[in-house]
Amino acid sequence: xILVGLGSSTPFLGRPPEAIVQKALGALSRLGRLCAGSRxxxxxxxxxxxxxxxxxxxxxxxxxxxxxxxxxxLTSIEAGFGRQQSCRNAPRTxxxxxxDYEGKIWLPTAHNALELPHPRIAARDFVLAPLAExxxxxxxxxxxxxxxxxxx
Length: 152
Prior knowledge:
This protein is of the alpha+beta class. It has 4 helices and 5 strands, in the order βαβββαβαα. It has helices spanning 17-28, 67-80, 125-134, 147-151; strands spanning 2-8, 33-37, 41-43, 54-62, 95-101. Strands 1, 2, 3, 4 and 5 form a 5-stranded antiparallel beta sheet that branches. The longest helix has 14 residues, at 67-80. It starts with a strand and ends with a helix.
């Protein structure tokens, strides 16, 4: 199971964040097969609650791309939606996070910054709620906890 988190808080080309996340779900299908997509969830911006709220979702995909190539492809999709790297947690048109790749555990190295599972997955309700919706049997590769258990 490959899980991708999606989020948007600012419009792009006149499209509101809800439409951006829906279009991004479609773009994920070009990387393989879109197996499942959650409904859209609204969450407050953090750490600055005065920033626009986020629209979030989680998707399950099947892809022949390895984790590093998949992350690169996700970054390319973000760029296609006008994503510009700015400061951490800033409002953005699209954010795609590789949450889990077939339960693999990877730690970052000097040559590869990818960390699996996503290091903050267990602390983010805006990820856990849609994840529990589409993959109720998923277990965190390190702790073994389900998304529902982590959410509570």
